[in-house]
Write a structure and sequence with these properties.
The protein has 536 residues and is α/β, with parallel strands linked by helices. It is built from 19 helices and 23 strands. Strands 10-15-14-13-11-12 form a six-stranded mixed beta sheet, with helices on both faces. The chain has a six-stranded mixed beta sheet with strand order 18-23-22-21-19-20, sandwiched between helices. Helix 2 runs parallel beside helix 10 and helix 13 (306-315) runs parallel beside helix 14. It starts with 10 loop residues before the first helix and ends in an 8-residue tail after the last strand.
Length: 536
């Protein structure tokens, strides 16, 4: 009868003959969080690994019945300056960094009694968590900037040919599996993998520290950095054959209450919608609703109630609203939810939802329901980034509207009424967020139609007029907003023939006088803002 045999890992023999496979002889462990560490320590002890440790980690290890050599005993120096300096010593970093295949390094390691440290397990002080803690002082935050830990991670990762680095608790299961199945040995490929993970961790940590000081020291906001740990891989990009990744933290913007995963195209429309709704934050007495499609508004209205705002926003273009992104500056109530629920849309974003409204909106499984965390006035930051020509271009976000009383300059003999003034400002807010060349037609706080993304302003105007007529709107009394100046009087002539007699535009053409003269000759009113709003 065959006797039971104890399993012997082949790595036990490979460690002796394969220089790429390394037996762990010494391990340095210094961690903030101890969860999941016990099993690793016990496996190291089982494999005869000498453990070096510090402070609370040493106490934890010895509480498991495993002996740990204090780093203080190794270096001959105590932990000083309130724990700021513990491991920063040649006997520690020498043990990690000396090259095992360099005779001179080996000679110096023996000469200075530097131990062989083949495994480093370390995590970093919780800097991000401290920053996010309400009431945390700058002193508390700064004290959570890890110095020794980040240095240990970089040193061990640099010497991955000989040393394995475990840079965070997320890698505990990986190293535990290696210890259990490989008899305390690691391969070069495994150490390289851990090194890559280590540099990812250190990069993210440094990025978080930079972004903190970036905010507090007033460095231009476009220097905001992102790390791989902030990456969210999306289902696909603009089209199914395109890969896509989002870098950033969506959780700071909103809370997802329902629905499927947010897509790349959803994000583009959400960004456009958030910035447009922010234009209406200055009037809390009015409910505003925006329907966004392909980065352009196809429906906008401001009304005393949410249900009225939704009804009139939808009326602007009920065809394009299909599959759109909706956003409002008011809590969605039951009456509004019932109306909204009649059409198909991808995303709705609001500062809140009544319980009954949320129940109604949740009847569609995939519908994305988001609750805003930021005020409507916050928008999506102060800078815009765009990849082009193999690089990244950065510009300040267009924060001005060009419609306030102080910015309007009447240039025609005929003035504007108070109602027209409100409509001009309303229309100019929308045209600012429309793809150039852009024309917006509005009346009574409602978007009638827009002409967008055209190669000429005349084409944009004709598109807007045709669209408004297709939905039965009477253009008499409507106002017109243009994102840039009129180089000729042709747009004023076309508008006048349709009964549109009030215009807002930047002005600045060498032939402004042609348009002004036409308006004066035909009883039209026009104001200049001096602010162009190209959007490419």
């Amino acid at each position: 009868m065959q006797k039971n045999r104890t399993f012997v890992s082949p790595y036990k023999y490979m460690c002796k003959f394969d220089t790429a496979v390394k037996k762990i002889k010494g391990a340095l462990i210094s961690v903030f969080y101890k969860d999941g560490l016990a099993e690793i320590v016990q496996e190291l002890d089982k494999n005869g690994v000498k453990i070096y440790s510090t402070g609370g980690t040493q106490t934890f290890i010895e509480g498991l019945g495993v002996k740990a050599c204090a780093v203080e005993d190794l270096t001959g120096y105590p932990s000083v300056f309130g724990g700021r300096v513990k491991t920063l010593h040649p006997k520690v970093f020498g043990g990690i960094l000396y090259r095992r295949d360099h005779p001179e390094d080996l000679q110096q390691a023996g000469q200075y009694e530097i131990p062989e440290i083949d495994l480093v397990i370390v995590d970093l002080y919780p800097f991000e968590q401290t920053v996010a803690t309400p009431g945390a002082t700058e002193q508390q935050i700064v004290e959570k900037i890890d110095i020794g830990g980040i240095s240990l991670i970089r040193a061990a990762a640099k010497n991955f040919k000989d040393v394995a680095i475990v840079p965070s608790v997320s890698q505990y299961p990986y190293i535990l599996d290696l210890l259990r199945t490989q008899g305390g040995c690691t391969t070069l490929e495994q150490r390289r993998h851990l090194a890559a993970e280590a540099f990812r961790v250190s990069s993210h940590y440094d990025t978080a520290i930079f972004n903190y000081f970036n905010r507090t020291e007033g460095i231009p906001a476009f220097k905001q950095s992102f790390s791989e740990q902030q990456a969210t891989h999306l289902r696909y990009g603009e089209n199914p054959h395109q890969g896509a990744t989002f870098y950033g933290d969506l959780s700071t913007q909103f809370e997802q209450l329902h629905g499927k995963e947010i897509s790349y195209n959803n994000m583009l429309d959400m960004d456009a919608a958030i910035n447009l709704i922010g234009e209406f934050a200055d009037d809390a007495s009015q409910a505003a609703f925006v329907i966004m499609k392909h980065n352009n508004a196809c429906g906008v209205a401001v009304r005393p109630t949410s249900v009225e705002a939704w009804t009139d926003a939808l009326a602007g273009d009920p065809v394009s609203a299909f599959g759109g992104v909706l956003i409002t500056n008011r809590t969605v109530d039951r009456a509004t939810a019932e109306k909204i629920n009649e059409i198909f849309f991808e995303v709705i974003l609001a500062p809140g939802y009544d319980d009954e409204a949320l129940e109604i909106l949740r009847t569609k499984k995939n519908r994305i329901i988001l609750k805003s965390k930021l005020s409507a006035a916050c928008g999506c930051g102060t800078m815009q980034f765009r990849s082009l020509l193999g690089g990244v271009a950065v510009q300040e976000r267009d924060a001005q509207v060009g419609g306030k009383d102080s910015e309007m300059r009447q240039v025609t003999a005929k003035g504007i009424t108070e109602a027209e003034r409100k409509d001009l400002i309303f229309a100019n807010k929308i045209v600012k967020h429309s793809k150039s060349n852009a024309i917006v037609l509005a009346k009574n706080g409602m978007l009638l139609a827009s002409g967008i993304g055209q190669t000429s302003r005349v084409d944009a105007l004709r598109q807007a007029i045709a669209k408004a007529k297709s939905f039965g709107f009477d253009l008499r009394g409507a106002v017109l907003a243009s994102d840039a100046f009129f180089p000729f009087a042709d747009c004023a002539e076309i508008a006048h023939r349709e009964g549109i007699d009030t215009i807002i535009q930047p002005g600045g053409s060498v032939r402004d006088s042609d348009t002004i003269d036409y308006c004066n000759a035909n009883g039209m009113a026009m104001v200049f803002t001096g602010l162009r709003h190209f959007k490419h």
